[in-house]
Amino acid sequence: MSSLVVLRRACVTAAADMGTLYTWRTWLLGWFARMVAQVTFFAFAGELYGGAAGKAYAFVGAALMACVIEAMMAVASTVWEKLEGTLPLLLAAPGSLYPVFLGRSTQWLASGVLTSSLILAGGRAFGVPVTPAAWAACVGLIALTAVGTYFVALTLGFVVLHFPGARNIVSNVAYMFMILVCGVVTPVAAGAAPLQVAAQAFPLTHGLAATRTVLAGSGPPWSDVLLLALTLLAWAAVSVLTLRVVVRLARERGTAAKLL
Amino acid sequence: MSDRGRGPAAWVPTRAQLRHLFARPDSLQALLTTPLLTAVFLTLADTSSTGGPASYAVLAPALMALWTSLLGAAGSTITEERNNGTLELVVASPANLFLFVLRRLSLSAVIGAVALAEAWVVAAVGFGQVVRIEAPLPFLAAAVLTVAGMVSTAGALASVFVLVPSARILQNALNYPFFLLGGVLVPLALLPDALAAPGRLVFLSYGSDLLRAGIAGAPTRPLTWVMLVLLGAGALAGGAVAFRRVVDRARVEGTLLRNG
């Protein structure tokens, strides 16, 4: 079976998972409303310490953070294959395992891009006027940031396959670290030097920088877009290599079904 | 899990209960993300152009960790008893199920205290900000009443989580809206009317104001204390009624062991 067919079927699994988790009503009231509250919380935190400029800065960061938080849920949904007992079967099946994991968590990408895009469209209420053209460009940047973060989440998810109980802790600590260092509510330069260096590794840092440039009406942020693309591809490669190592270890040690 | 029977001693946690508490994923998650979140708020305070207080940045993560931990515990307390096969025994016993749940949830107050200590250490060591509590007795009184209100509210919500199959969505939906309307970081007085008005119905907004006043040694209004006690007591009464209704219905329909 070709990898593309596997990928397509894994995406169908992802859509089915989403359908069991949410209806449109529970997505709007249970997820989207919570993200609006979170963005509002951080925006007013920015205003408390930085006035109107701080509010606008934190709003943009928190709006983009919505797609990052959802993309990071791929850590947990990657581990679901182990918890549901399908991992040994996948290992025994012919063909590469990567397309399965690449596709089975894509529901978070769709939901995350939609959430961030809709929230960003309401920027005027937080002092961030967004023209239709700027919004369209930002949706593209949101999508790239979400995909780049998705590869970060897949990498962490593959590592956490060995410690399934830690899946939610790992994803939450990871995205909280990104809030701290990636320029979400305070500039990257406000952090200590080692944190500024660490920030460069995350797609979010460059996606945010590009988004802020677009919203400020400045010229196309090609250097930030290039760095965003490079970090996306780098994490894609890292995720492929990580899965190869994890699969080899699981086969050698027979731990594919071991949950503890 | 050992029980110390009735009376005040029943509310003092045993070593086994504390071990179990700290092993819970949601407790661990709260304790691991608190230093990061504190660093986010303190970086905001460090770069502040408005002179926003650093003490707010230390108090908020503790309250957020406590509420997140309580929500997690409220969602899983009944489920754990059900999975252990002990729920029917507890319901059949003379013990009041709501009190049983409240005692389990009150353990999470320990998480709040540890989170506050973590936030204080991050501020002192990482940012050179030593937060002093200028009015310790009012601060302690406000802390006890706020924690009691949180435990009561989480206990009331536990009855809803028993009924609803998608409890996880509800748990996610009830964090940031609560933090925002509860004024945990930004006092309601600094929020627009559209948010401040509904916030005045949330007991936490009064608790947050009193805790901040205790840290600053600022005077408080008697009405604030009255509202905190009234709304907390309301949650307690509402939770007791809700639990009675849920358990009676489950007894009649024979659905005590059914998830949702």
Structural overview:
The complex is a heterodimer of chains A (260) and B (260). With 260 residues, chain A is mainly alpha-helical. Chain A is 78% helix and 0% strand. Chain A has 11 helices and no strands. In chain A, α3 (74-83) runs antiparallel to α8 (167-181) and α7 (132-160) packs parallel to α11 (222-253). The longest helix of chain A is centred in the N-terminal third of the chain and has 48 residues, at 24-71. Chain A is globular, with a radius of gyration of 19 Å. Chain B is globular, with a radius of gyration of 19 Å. By secondary structure, chain B is mostly helical. Chain B has 12 helices and no strands. Helix content of chain B is 73%, strand content 0%. The longest helix of chain B has 32 residues, at 222-253. Classes of the chains: A mainly alpha (260), B mainly alpha (260). At the A-B interface, α2 and α8 of A face α2, α8 and α9 of B.
Q: Roughly what percent helix of chain B?
A: over 70%
How confident is the prediction overall: mean pLDDT of chain A? 92
> Which structural class do you get from the secondary structure elements of chain A?
mainly alpha
Tell me the overall shape of chain A.
globular
Keywords:
heterodimer, A: mainly alpha, 78% helix, B: 260 residues, mainly alpha, 73% helix
List the helices and strands and how they pair.
The complex is a heterodimer of chains A (260) and B (260).
Chain A: H1 3-21, H2 24-71, H3 74-83, H4 87-92, H5 98-104, H6 106-121, H7 132-160, H8 167-181, H9 193-199, H10 203-215, H11 222-253
Helix pairs in contact in A: 1-5, 2-6, 2-7, 2-8, 2-10, 3-7, 3-8, 6-7, 7-10, 7-11, 10-11
Chain B: H1 15-23, H2 25-46, H3 54-84, H4 87-92, H5 97-106, H6 109-126, H7 136-163, H8 167-173, H9 176-181, H10 193-199, H11 203-216, H12 222-253
